[in-house]
């Protein structure tokens, strides 16, 4: 709450996330805008950081991911038009939820007592608020929203507010494969809801496997792809958020209290398997119907610069260029290596990497995007490296 007792408005999305493009967002936005795109697809949207930037720049954006928590974020920030939201009603409802006393439930038991992601007082607040959101706004499905039968347009916004509030008081290195052995200082702060900073304009949220979505969507001006880089699965890295949004109280296992369905092969992705990932990504590139395709990848990935450039050329794009950006590795790498009990067991070998942004499409649009990338601090990767 602010000094006058009103709920604070949040800034840009701040959830800690593996592979987040937070530092690269301005460059990606400038490059996309330089192509003249009016419609855009963010196919592995995650926290929707990049999709939000595209929408802020005036593009009509489709944000897609396979994760339920990502769909909630996309419905809040991309599918919701701020101009159609009753701001006073939203602020009043967030203030009401923020004033609820804690009621211990699944989160308190599973993530505070059996594990140590949150202090018990905050876990009980999460339980109480999430129950209240479901009772007052849910529609009986994992994510009932404005475009569903009987959906409440405030539902994804309130879920996002709670998820972001929980993220601000968690005790992890930025992933939920483990929690810290000693409480993070932020974990002692009281959980507080904020009003998400919504964006004006239209957009869509689509939950599904990237391969299916790429085949199903119609023509667009620009597609942005930021696929997983390695074997680390977002379903397990962010299982707490998946459970918070689904609110299905799943059986949990192990020290990290992961969802039992994390063991189900159906929750695994081809993009997290070394042998399958290059072929899966090449197929998505071939199937997506976009005049311009931008792909983010880094020098720790399973597919090298030559292989990815070849996939883009084989998809029929006239021109392909690569811009490299020096980047800090994700927050967990900078903190160190931890075992499942949250104990620090080592240091990472390096703290920086190179983020590559591939641009493929008509020569003039590729050239304009590359120029924007260079102006934003990137360097052209020489053709011999491709």
From TrEMBL:
It is an enzyme of class 2 (transferase). Keywords: Methyltransferase, S-adenosyl-L-methionine, Signal, Transferase. Residues 1-32 form the signal peptide. GO terms for molecular function: methyltransferase activity. It catalyses: a 2'-deoxyadenosine in DNA + S-adenosyl-L-methionine = an N(6)-methyl-2'-deoxyadenosine in DNA + S-adenosyl-L-homocysteine + H(+). Its EC number is 2.1.1.72. One of its GO terms (biological process) is methylation. This is site-specific DNA-methyltransferase (adenine-specific). It comes from Schaalia naturae. The lineage of its organism: Bacteria, Bacillati, Actinomycetota, Actinomycetes, Actinomycetales.
